[in-house]
Design a protein that fits this description.
The chain has a single domain (5-192), classed as Spore Coat Polysaccharide Biosynthesis Protein SpsA, Chain A (Alpha-Beta Complex), CATH 3.90.550. It is 31% helix and 21% strand. It is of the alpha/beta class.
């Protein structure tokens, strides 16, 4: 079975960060976007979606073995997913959000490995107690739906419409739920992870 293309969504404007760029915040001395890109690359072919004019983000990863594409439209996460899946044929896609520093390369390997076992057409990471989260792998049959998404809800509509095809994969702790959107989120996360 073909391994999923990893689609790392990193085009958000960090509008809630009070002037800082959440994806350039450092984790263990490395910008979060670079760290997440490195983790994705360890697991397979990776395409990173940036927004227009995000030169500092591009600079942080352009030496890595990733395919960088730009979301030119402005309707949120859907625009990133549409440009991310453009040109992909008959291949599963793993959507990863770049602002989730607790997601490890091992988590991505786990999801890919389970997908290869034909567990379900959609695999969605979950918290240890079963709350749905990220990342998510979509079988090739969903590419046409991903390519038509609108708005800032990402692929939630596809997950809802095809709930019977979704298998939840619990990851440790709250990894699948922890995203860092505000300075307060970052401060709380760093307090829980003092070594970072």
């Amino acid at each position: 079975m073909t391994a999923p293309l990893i689609l790392l969504l990193a085009a958000g404007a960090s509008s809630r960060m009070k002037g800082r760029d959440k994806l350039l915040e450092h984790v263990n001395g490395t910008a979060l976007l670079r760290l997440m890109s490195e983790r994705c690359v360890k697991c397979g072919e990776t395409r990173v979606v940036l927004g227009l004019g995000q030169d500092a983000r591009r600079d942080a990863i352009e030496d890595l073995r990733v395919d960088i594409v730009e979301a030119t439209e402005t309707d949120g996460m859907a625009a990133s997913i549409r440009v991310g899946v453009d040109g992909i044929k008959n291949r599963p896609v793993m959507i990863v959000l770049a602002d989730m520093p607790d997601i490890t390369a091992s988590d991505l390997h786990l999801l890919s490995g389970l997908y290869a076992q034909n567990l379900s057409p959609i695999l969605q990471a979950a918290s240890k107690d079963g709350q749905p989260g990220q990342p998510v792998i979509f079988a090739p049959k969903f590419l046409k739906h991903l390519a038509k998404l609108q708005g800032d809800q990402g692929a939630k509509s596809i997950l809802k419409t095809n709930a019977k095809d979704v298998a939840l994969i619990p990851l440790a702790d709250e990894r699948a739920l922890t995203d860092l959107d505000t300075p307060e989120d970052w401060a709380a996360w760093r307090a829980r992870n003092p070594s970072t």
